[in-house]
Design goal:
Layout: E1 3-7, E2 10-13, H1 14-34, H2 38-59, H3 62-82, H4 84-95, H5 98-103, H6 110-124, E3 129-134, H7 140-143, E4 147-152, H8 155-161, E5 172-176, E6 179-185, E7 194-195, E8 198-199, H9 202-213, E9 216-221, E10 228-232, E11 235-237, H10 242-270
Parallel strand pairs: 3-5
Antiparallel strand pairs: 1-2, 3-9, 4-6, 5-6, 7-8, 9-10, 10-11
């Protein structure tokens, strides 16, 4: 391969540059996904170990190189274990892309069907509910204020959580990657106290508040009136039917998926 330039004793070719750009793009995308979480600190540690391993191998330090190689092998296993949620999230984003859905029929509406049906049945019984669906921004700090669930989203589970006599019914449910992460979570309240001249209850202010702070969509079921609302990007839509809720959730999650996929390629292009 044609040599572009040399850095000391290192020869840099066009293939080396392409290799570095691709690896940098991958690491950058992983960092944007885990930014603001505890995993980010572990990620920086992994980068440091890999960088030192590269330098040591280039300098031909055999003993130190052997030690760092051993440490790197352990880090690969630790990486898979520690970053399991993030790896799963990336694979889900890729699987939901328009390119993949062109060849495979998407099952994207499954979770929206479950949430819409659950909200409708809860509304029919006037059981209050607060369901937060994470789109791209992690809200792990909020999830940690509640009780860990870590279970697949089902209609019966959501109805059980928000049953008035359930110890978990007070607070919000956090759903991330079609998994209920936690229940009975405390959400920040919005400073807005009225909507179209009507006073907002605590559930609506909480749903509106988290939508102002994070990239989420929040479904709210009023205990007093049985009405269904949705909060996103600091905007609140009330009085929704089951079909309208399902449509809005589908549109919101599809836009988020397309945006994240575009971000992967734009991030690689801008580096």
């Amino acid at each position: 391969m044609f040599e572009l330039f040399r850095i000391g004793f290192l020869s840099v070719t066009l293939l080396d540059v392409i290799d570095i750009v691709l690896v940098t793009a991958i690491f950058y995308k992983i960092f944007t996904i885990i930014r603001g979480t505890i995993a980010a600190q572990i990620f920086f540690g992994l980068i440091l170990v890999l960088f030192l391993s590269f330098v040591v191998q280039a300098a031909n330090f055999k003993a130190l190189g052997w030690l760092l190689k051993l440490l790197s092998d352990i880090w690969v296993i630790a990486f898979i274990i520690l970053f399991q949620p993030e790896i799963r999230r990336i694979l889900i984003l890729i699987g939901r892309s328009q390119f993949i859905s062109f060849f495979v029929k998407s099952d994207h509406t499954t979770i929206t069907d479950v949430i819409a049906e659950s909200a409708y049945e809860l509304a029919q019984n006037q059981h209050g509910a607060l369901i937060v669906i994470v789109k791209s921004g992690g809200i792990r700090g909020v999830a940690e204020t509640g009780e860990l669930i870590d279970s697949k989203v089902t209609k019966n589970l959501l109805r059980s959580i928000f049953f008035p006599r359930s110890p978990l019914h007070d607070g919000a449910v956090i759903i991330n990657n079609e998994i209920i992460e936690a229940a009975r979570c405390t959400l920040p309240l919005s400073t807005e106290t009225k909507k179209d001249g009507r006073a907002l209850g605590m559930r609506h202010r909480a749903g509106l508040g988290i939508s102002e702070m994070a990239d989420v969509v929040c479904v709210i079921v009023s205990e007093e009136t049985g009405s269904i609302s949705i909060a996103e990007n600091g905007n609140l839509k009330t009085g929704l039917s089951r079909e309208t809720l399902k449509r809005l959730l589908n549109e919101s999650l599809r836009k988020s998926t397309d945006k994240n996929i575009r971000g992967i390629f734009q991030g690689a292009k801008n580096i």
